[in-house]
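ok so for the tutorial part 2 we go from a plain amino acid sequence to predicted structure tokens. step 1 is just haveing the sequence, like this:
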Amino acid sequence: MLFTLPFAILLLLRGVARTAVIAGTATAVSNRVSRRQAERWSQQGDYPYDEPEPQPQPTYAAPPPPAAPAADPIQQLKDLAALKDQGILTEEEFAAQKAKILGS
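step 2 — the prediction. this is what the tokens look like for a chain of 104 residues:
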């Protein structure tokens, strides 16, 4: 069915007007319901916004940072061996540090 342009515009305007009336009615009803509810709450003294403010949550100290990861004992022994080879550590110092690293 083919409509003329003025008739199509009238149909479009009719739809827009209907939507505006429905939206206006819905808004008016919603506002009236909200006002009535607020009046009831104020009469009963149970208005939800009259609640006391919540108590602040206790604050706790931050947990300590995790301990540094233990050094790789094999790498420590290699470093000690390099220091001994360079003459920085004596044989006794090397043995003492080696025993300390190996826990024996």
